[in-house]
Every structure is written in C-alpha cells, then in structure tokens.
Amino acid sequence: MQWAEHGVLQIVDEDISSLYCYYDRDGMGYDESFLFELQLQNLPLTPGSVSAIQFVLVDESPLREGIIEDVQAAIRSVDTQYNGSIIK
Q1: What are the tens digits of pLDDT across the range 44-55?
Q2: For the residues of 20-36, what is the DSSP string, one character each?
Q3: Edge-to-edge, what's the strand order for the sheet holding 2-3?
Q4: Which of 44, 38, 6, 46 is nearest to 19 (CA)?
Q5: In sequence order, what are the residues at sequence separation of 6 or more whose Cβ sits closer than 8 angstroms to the Cβ of residue 47?
C-alpha cells in the first residue's frame, strides 16, 4: 500500500495476496487483515486522510467476493470521513 496524491490509498497485488493469506491461513476477516497490514506497513489512518482507494493490480483476476466492502469498512472504522470512493 502507498499514498498517492490527494489522499488516494493505493492497494497493490502484494497487499491483496497478504489479505488472502491471513484469511486462508489464520481465518482473519479481510477487514481485520487490512488494518493489520496498515500497521505492518506503518501507514497510519486518521480522520480525513483517505479520499479514495485504488486497487492497482497487475494480476487481472477478479477480487474475491466481499474484499472491497471489507476494505471500505475497515477504512471507515478509522477514518469516519471516508465516503467509500474507489478509483478504477
């Protein structure tokens, strides 16, 4: 994950692979896994910090069902000002 201009949080293939791993191996929900990854990568969220999320994926396979919604919910749990925007 990394910050892009204007508060866009970019989520890359490696991040998604980590979320799948935590889910499959440890039984962690995608929302919990996402928050854990933010801590590991030292990417703090604060209210108003995320204007949108963007999935920057080289692997064109579709994301597993529910992952986008869980990532959005995790962000909202910390950044109550996040409005759910996604950049495609």
Answers
A1: 899 999 999 999
A2: HHIIIII---HHHHHHH
A3: 2-3, 8-12, 52-56, 86-87
A4: 38
A5: 78, 79, 80, 81
- Tell me how far the alpha carbon of residue 41 is from its chain's centroid: 12
Three-state SS sequence of 36-60: HHHHHCCCCCCCCCCCEEEEECCCC
Residues 6+ apart with CB under 8 A from 88: 54
| CA dist list (Å): 42 to 1, 4, 52 | 10, 15, 19
Tokens for 19, please give them: 């979320």
Global confidence as pTM: 0.92
Q: Which residues contact 49 (CB under 8 A, 6 or more apart)?
A: 7, 79
Report the C-alpha gap between 74 and 27 in whole angstroms: 16
| CB 34, CB 79: distance < 8 Å | no
Residue 59's pLDDT is what?
81
State the residue for tokens 């866009």: 8
